[in-house]
Amino acid sequence: MTAVPIPAPVAAARLRARPVSVTLATQLLRRPAAVVSLIVLAGLAAMAVLGPSIAPHGAEDQDYVHILAKPVWDGGTWTYPLGTDELGRDLLSRMIVGSRTALGLAFAAALLTGVVGTALGLVAGLYTRFLGPVIMWVVDAQLGFPYLVLALALVAARGPSLTTVFIVLALFGWVQFARVVRAEVLRVKTADYVLAARGAGASELAIVLRHILPNVLSTTIVVGTFTFSAVLLVESGLSFLGAGVQPPTADWGAMMAGGRVFLNTAWWYSVVPGVMVVITVLAVNTLGAAVRSVLNPREAK
Asked: For position 143, which CATH number holds?
């Protein structure tokens, strides 16, 4: 029997019927860098979720007999594979538990800024007479003010704590979402299908939810990946400066700050958590670049 060819219109309809998420996943899996990034991020997410259950020791357990013990590659033992700190605490366990603090704060802050920034960007793009200019004025004002100075002033006023760090991080990235989403809304709201829906009598809310928002979500996802990296760097930087997560809570930035005194004798103390931050940021940025090139092939070229 000879195969019956599928008519071109039917084949095109089938391609259009495929969910965008399936198409995006298929394209990403064809890119080795994106696959490696996904594997690394999946491992980091599992480490953050499981946390203390997979740590070989308690994050606060002290062993005064093995203070500043060397890592296993420098003559240490497998009891403390990455060595110990100045109080004899296992660095591997603290890094595993600290991933929950660092990644959890960064993810929660990036998610909140994404929701708030996207909502304000939609409003700014739809209402260009009064609300839009006011929102963009606030955006420009925040972009014109040094963010690190604002963060340190807020920490000094409220005192360093997890709540203060979360508030500081939540104030960081929403402006990027608002600017990008507003630009996309200004482009999409004049498209033919939006004008047709408005001419057919669809309400403004229905047009936003069914036509405008789905077309800006892809851009929001890309911005979200880069925002997560930026927020993680800010969180680690604040903790390194002593204005973020406070001891004895395990955190990558706080670990780097604690080890800087011992760089000459125990360089791994500060370097290992720093490498974890670099790996995380590199994996997220690589994945974000892959998503952007899949969603916008012209830009990738």
From this structure: 1.10.3720.10
